[in-house]
Specification:
The structure holds three protein chains of three kinds. Chain A has helices at 39-50, 84-87, 112-120, 143-151, 159-163, 165-169, 176-186, 194-200, 215-219, 226-242, and strands spanning 8-19, 25-34, 69-72, 75-78, 92-96, 103-105, 108-109. By secondary structure, chain A is an alpha+beta fold. Chain A has two domains: 2-109, Beta-grasp domain (Ubiquitin-like (UB roll), Roll); 112-242, Alpha-helical ferredoxin (Fumarate Reductase Iron-sulfur Protein, Chain B, domain 2), CATH 1.10.1060.10. The model of chain A has no long low-confidence stretch (mean pLDDT 95). Chain B has one domain: 3 helical TM bundles of succinate and fumarate reductases (Up-down Bundle). Chain C has four helices and no strands. In chain C, helix 1 crosses helix 3 (59-87) and helix 3 (59-87) packs antiparallel against helix 4. Chain C is mostly helical. The chains are: A alpha+beta, B mainly alpha, C mainly alpha.
């Protein structure tokens, strides 16, 4: 079944796709090059027309869910938002699963580790009021809310996590996404969990393990800056440390 | 890296920024016309100022460098060492002690 | 054994800046004990230290010393960039700052060579 809007250019590209688990290998397919084609279109084409055993994830196809994140020519990206024309090199594409996560099969990874670190960083809202009290009126213009809003749009796609060499080299490191979320909660005036949270990000593998490679900032598809968030956590934890609140 | 090591490392870094600048100027000033032991020692022998300056520099460098080394061993070192917090701490303290001992000896040798 | 290729970000300027910072620090840390031992020669005698310093008059050694001076300068400048990121609110221009750090290192190394080579 042809995709209704696909305009074929008459050319093909060679697409090397990772198959198997951690000890698998690349398998190369010839895929027709289409106009306005995305890398997700390419993976979908392979699975539908060439090899139905190819495993991969996607959901929205329009850049709002983050499910289709994979490694494309060495960099983690949303494949639904990556145009083939922008990344193809000498008529070749290389597609692999996201780094720093166990590979389940082919292009699908096990993201448990990513979410466990999210929890370990206390990236969870701790309420300070009950449903019986009036809803907190948070103006978007307050300094704290501006800080939160700049970092809140994270959809847990795992791209920053996959781009981070400190995640790769230090298995205790909580990672950019978890720490970025912790930073938004640290600045949420309704949250009551900062005692535990600042402690959680001050231990081994916390925010201080970040070496400012800035790969997270470079690759975030939503344009977030976890490096800046982590720097904010460093400032807050240092102040807390000096006051004797984190040991 | 945790908050304690981080604070120590950044504080010694900030402390050393002006010390390094002075040291770089000293190097450039001293090496014009070639550097000789007589010229160096002529300025450092009996100098409380240079003694304190370099003793402080040595202490800060020993702390800063040993913590930096620990981070590198944690991330790039052999698996068995990287996975052992005690091993990493030992390497850090050992290297720091070596730098401190050799450094203070060097300061003493040119000041006293 | 094949493995997925996933490190394309290691070409990025700011990643390279972080590696320059780390490697310069490591090299300086390795150099320090040697530096301290050399200065400690003065304990034996001024002549002993002077003998060693004569050895360092060779061009190749002077070049190595210039590299050390450059390493110190780049580590300082890169470190200042990090201290700014970590202690002040975020600012753009990181790539420019990293490039300036590299420039400072080259200038420092060249200045050293100039000072030693042209009395």
């Amino acid at each position: 079944m042809q995709q209704a809007t696909e305009q074929s250019t008459g050319r093909t590209i060679a697409v090397a796709i990772w198959r198997g688990g951690a000890d698998g290998d690349y398998q190369t397919f010839e895929v027709p090059l289409g106009a306005n084609q995305t890398v997700l279109d390419v993976v979908t084409y392979v699975q539908r027309h060439l090899d139905p055993t190819l495993s991969y994830r996607f959901a929205c196809r329009v850049g709002v869910c983050g499910s289709c994140a994979m490694t494309v020519n060495g960099r983690p990206r949303w494949t639904c938002r990556t145009h083939v024309s922008k990344v193809v090199e000498n008529g070749r594409l290389e597609i692999a699963p996201l780094a720093n996560l166990p590979v389940i099969k082919d292009l699908a990874t096990d993201m448990s580790r990513f979410f466990e670190k999210w929890q370990a960083a206390k990236g969870v809202f701790a309420p300070s009021a009950t449903r019986g009290e009036p809803i907190a009126a948070i103006s978007p213009a307050t300094p704290e809310r501006r800080i939160v809003d700049a970092a809140i749009e994270c959809i847990n796609c795992g791209v920053c996590f996959a781009a981070c060499d400190t995640v790769r080299w230090n298995e205790d490191y909580l990672g950019p996404a978890a720490l970025n979320r912790a930073w938004t909660l640290v600045n949420d005036v309704r949250d009551a969990g900062n005692g535990e949270r600042l402690y959680a990000v001050s231990r081994d593998g916390g925010c201080h393990a970040c070496h400012t490679h800035q790969s997270c900032e470079r690759h975030c598809p939503v344009g977030l800056n976890p490096t800046a968030s982590i720097a904010g956590l460093k400032r807050r934890t240092m102040a807390a440390y000096i006051r004797g609140e984190v040991t | 890296m945790n908050v304690h090591l981080y604070v120590l490392q950044r504080l010694t870094a900030a402390l050393m920024a002006p010390l390094v600048l002075v040291h770089l100027v000293v190097i450039l000033y001293a090496t014009r016309n070639g550097v000789s032991a007589a010229e160096i020692l002529g300025r450092t022998r009996g100098s409380l100022v240079w003694g304190l300056f370099y003793a402080l520099f040595v202490a800060a460098a020993a702390v800063h460098g040993s913590i930096g080394l620990r981070a590198i061993l944690r991330e790039w070192g052999p698996r068995s060492l990287a996975a052992s917090p005690r091993g990493l701490d030992f390497a850090m303290y050992a290297f720091g002690a070596v730098l401190l001992a050799l450094g203070l000896r060097a300061v003493a040798s040119v000041v006293l | 054994m094949a493995a997925p290729r996933t490190t394309g970000y290691r070409r990025d300027a700011l990643w390279l800046a972080a590696m320059v910072h780390r490697v310069s620090g490591l090299l300086l840390a390795c150099f320090l004990p040697v530096h301290f031992l050399v200065l400690g020669l003065a304990i034996e005698s001024e002549a002993r230290l002077d003998g060693f310093l004569r050895w360092t008059d060779r061009p190749l050694v002077k070049l190595a010393e210039a590299v050390l001076v450059a390493l110190l300068a780049v580590h300082l400048a890169g470190g200042l960039r990090l201290l700014l990121i970590e202690n002040l609110s975020w600012r753009g221009g990181q790539k420019r700052m990293a490039a300036a750090a590299l420039l400072a290192a080259v200038v420092a190394g060249l200045l050293f060579l100039a000072v030693t080579a042209l009395p």
